[in-house]
Specification:
11 helices, binds zinc ion, single chain
Length: 356
């Protein structure tokens, strides 16, 4: 599908901290260009509406083609899959909208919930650190964009977690650790995984661990939408959503970059109210604001901060030369973050997407 050449006029643009006065912006050949450089074919008067960069969801799981349709329809133009198999399935999702990246098969320990997931490949299950190098080499050969390790209790030894992170970094890949308890966070911090995803549901991270994360420049994708859904749906003993929220408050206050991700998953899950693709990113933004991020910081957590941390430097802001990924919304999300739901138009690489 050819990308359209389009000029948007009378539009207020989110520049990373505030909205500009009404101005013009243009897309040509799939990238953002200055409006004066374009012999425009289509002009859209936006009536003072707000233009945001296309949203990232920094933690999804892809299972069906419809997952992509839902993500795109809610303004997600880049989705970071955090475990999908087999590699042929991952490949089938590449080259569409949203643009995806994937961890492929995750490293897990035997015997836990993840090992029981349908079709989990045998080579996902590690029992000793000596297997880490082969595990990472396999993922790299399959085209995995980053390496995911699932930390759940002591299903993986610390030495094995460390070995996976070390092997991933040695191959130039970002390493992402799943951790939804204080103990799992401690292990992920000890291993110095680049990215930690989920937030503890059994306690608040203490100042020592947060300080170490700052020092190690670790990044967090807390998936508050999923933490909220787990607590509401399953009410596990000893767990509370407030622990997740307060951990994010502490991390953000200390300067740890927080990225917006949802853990959206459309497969069989024991949750009565699953986290749906697309709509959940807007819930995540609301929960991040509730946890203490400013509206601008929340928007950046779903746009340029993800681009920066995952080295997707061709996108994430409404700047000439970058991919023309953008959403036009009614209202001012800097005054009320819920305005991101009021989507009027979506463009991915300059191509108009049907909104929800
Ligand atoms: Zn996940």
């Amino acid at each position: 599908m050819p990308s359209s050449n389009i000029v948007l006029t009378n539009v207020r643009i989110f520049d990373g901290s505030q909205l500009t006065e009404p101005t013009s912006i243009a897309f040509n050949g799939g990238v953002i260009v200055p409006p004066d450089a374009l012999p425009g074919t289509e002009t859209v008067d936006c009536g003072g509406a707000t233009l945001l960069p296309g949203l990232f969801d920094a933690h999804v799981h892809l299972l069906f083609p419809d997952d992509l349709v839902k993500l795109a329809a809610h303004g997600v133009t880049t989705a970071l899959d955090m475990a999908c198999w087999p590699p042929e399935r991952v490949d089938s999702f590449r080259g569409h909208t949203p643009d995806i990246r994937s961890a492929g098969t995750p490293a897990i320990g035997g015997g836990g919930n993840h090992a029981r997931m349908p079709g989990m490949p045998h080579d996902a299950i590690l029992s000793n650190p000596g297997q880490a190098e082969h595990f990472v080499a396999q993922r790299v050969a399959e085209g995995a964009d980053y390496i995911k390790v699932v930390i759940e209790g002591d299903l993986l030894s610390q030495a094995t977690i460390d070995a996976v992170v070390t092997a991933g970094k040695a191959r130039g890949r970002l390493t992402v650790a799943h951790a939804s308890s204080v103990d799992a966070y401690r292990r992920a911090v000890q291993a110095n995984a680049d990215v930690i995803t989920h937030a503890p549901r059994d306690g608040v991270l203490d100042t020592d661990i947060v300080a170490q994360m700052v020092q190690q420049q670790q990044v967090v994708v807390p998936t508050l939408a999923m933490m909220e859904a787990v607590i509401k749906g399953l009410a596990p003993a000893g767990q509370d959503y407030a622990f997740s929220r307060d951990s994010v408050t502490a991390l953000h206050a200390a300067g740890v970059p927080i990225l917006a991700g949802t853990d959206a998953f459309s497969g069989p899950a024991p949750l009565p109210n699953p986290v749906s693709h697309g709509s959940s990113i807007h819930r995540e933004l609301e929960l991040l604001v509730e946890a203490g991020l400013s509206e601008a910081a929340a928007l950046r957590s779903a746009t340029d901060l993800v681009a920066q941390q995952f080295n997707l430097t061709d996108r994430g802001a409404l700047t000439p030369g970058l991919r023309a990924d953008a959403i036009l919304v009614d209202g001012d999300p800097l005054a009320d973050i819920r305005a991101t739901r009021n989507i009027r138009r979506i463009w991915a690489s300059g191509v108009s997407v049907t909104s929800n």
